[in-house]
Every structure is written in structure tokens, then in C-alpha cells.
UniProtKB/TrEMBL annotation:
Keyword DNA-binding: no
Record flagged with keyword Ribonucleoprotein: no
Bilayer-spanning residue ranges: 12-30, 50-69
Entry GO terms, CC: ATP-binding cassette (ABC) transporter complex
InterPro entries noted in UniProt: Permease_MalE
Name assigned to this protein: ABC transporter permease
Pfam families documented for this protein: MlaE
Species, as recorded: [Mycobacterium] manitobense
UniProt keyword annotations, A-Z: Membrane, Transmembrane, Transmembrane helix
Gene Ontology MF term list: phospholipid transporter activity
Region forming the signal peptide: none
Amino acid sequence: LTLITGPTDVFIALIKAALFGLTAGLIACYKGISVGGGPAGVGNAVNETVVFTFMALFAINVVATAVGVKAGT
């Protein structure tokens, strides 16, 4: 495993993990603070949070992986 991973791979993984955590947390906080409509609104906010977080993390992963591949070459 250490033969195929280098410092660049570890650095990119750490950056991606930090971005994923920050993004998921910010989206969840925003959706949680702006919820309205009682219990049904909370359910809708949770559903929207999951969908928006998935889309955001997918986009971040694509960009970060492309940057990582460019940096590794």
C-alpha cells in the first residue's frame, strides 16, 4: 500500500475529508435553522438536507479528484 500512495494522496484525502465535513455541516445547519411548518417541515428539511448534501459532495469529489490527479502527475 505504501508503494502506491504518496504524500500527495494523503494530502488530497485530508483536504477532501475536511471539505466534506464542512459542507455537510453547513448545509445541515442552514436547513435546520430555516425550517418551518412544524414536524412535517422538519421531515422535509431532513430530506432536502440529504439530497443537497449528496449533490454538493458529489460535485466537490469530482473537482477535488480532478485537482488531485493533476497534482499527482
